[in-house]
Amino acid sequence: MSVVALQWVALAACLLGAATRLPDIHRGRGRGVFTALVLLSVAVGLSLRPIYLAVDQLLGGVNLANLVIRMALYAVFVLLGLRMVAAFDAPRARKFILGPLGIAVLVATVGATVYFFVQSDLSYSSTGLGAFEDQEAVQHYSEVGRLYPGYVAACLVGPSLASVVNSGARFLHRLAGAFLALGFGTVTLFAALRLLGVELAAWNIILPFSAILCVVLGLCLIWLSRRRAAHSGGRSNLLAQ
Amino acid sequence: MMAVTAKAFQLWRSRIAPNDTVSDVCRTAGIKRSTLAQQLVRGKVSVGTVIAIARGYSEDPVQALAEFEGYRDLGSSLRPPTDAELVSQVSHIDILRLLVARSEDRERAGDTVELELAPFPHRNSLRAWVEAIDPGDLRQSLAARTGVARQNLSAQLTAGRLSPELAVEAARIAGVSLTSGLVVTGLLTPEEGGWPDRGRGRALWALTDIELVQLARDRLEILGKQLRKAELEDGHDQAIWENLG
Q1: Tens digit of pLDDT for each residue in B201-229?
Q2: Which of A128, B9, B39, B137 is the most exposed place for a label (fewest CB within 10 A)?
Q3: How far is Cα A37 from Cα A55, in angstroms, rounded to an integer?
Q4: Contact list, B242 vs chain A (CB under 8 Å)
């Protein structure tokens, strides 16, 4: 499978994940994850050349669309971070993400992203800013973009793994936990490799997009388990079993 | 200690059903053909399969099993279950019902309180049975003699499962009737395993008031722990569904 195919598959997965949650939104549930999946769809969609070029033309042809990807991704990690720590009851991860350190990393990442974007000379639309890679500001822009996602993902690996090793948990939740842990672990690894300056070539695409697939799959499994539980009639009488 | 070998199984099968094909045997026993085929390919036929086939051909399941390696002493050691074993297979609800009946003094009043005991195995049958036959170090000896790790053993008991091999070996170590293990795992019916009809009711009845109260207390304590664990898991599920579902 070529890397572009992987990106299209990831986009389809995000859209599908968002679509399955659409009926629940009307009933006012699951807004956080739904919004995260929509924003993730935007970010993934804009990483594809035809979509990027079309959208960026509408935004003035100065690669504002790339800035949109970054901001959407940061928002995705804020939302997923909030939801994950609440779902897996992880006070330590919660402190790291919502505490002063987490906020500081978020503010620094957003600030640095905007700063290096403005510093870059981006005269025409180029997917992934590939045409401007030799500019130092563009390189920094790309590096700071991994900071906040990598930080949040690192915080979420532990809580996800904890749900896998909990032998009393539902099978679907353990499986979902495994995919989430794999996804966030991959994001963390990717961020670390980028910060260390390792030459990744095709893995620049493979790592983040397979991470997205894992996370979306994990979220879909949890959606499925809630569906099945709702069908079997909600809370059970534990004494009567 | 293993499931029976496919070779021994085939010998046995050709004796009890000399003219039947494998398909015929499965139909008579009411088991899936693919299940037996898979077991034969792996070279190990499960105890449950042997019992089902024996029943299908009106053979005594205990005598049938006793023809296989590892189960030879099954028939010769057939004894009635101990009172502790019988009581272990009474559900906590039936124990509480007797407790209430005695508290209301219905026994002394001359009423014959006929307690229709719920059929067993009940929800904690295996754990209760293992505790009833335990001479003190049963789990340790069982782990040592079968090579199954103690953690694994505990996990099986918690999940309400125990392989027939382990159940028979546990009975062997404890010195109780070997069929008991197969009865409490539900593989043999009480009648097949030599459990007397109404034996549980009699053994329960014979308990003194103190024994009955302590039994009820122990069972409720276990139930309480299970409920707490289940409720905790339920809370985890709700949190996951509400935030990520």
Answers
A1: 989 989 999 999 999 999 999 999 989 98
A2: B137
A3: 19
A4: 29, 86-87
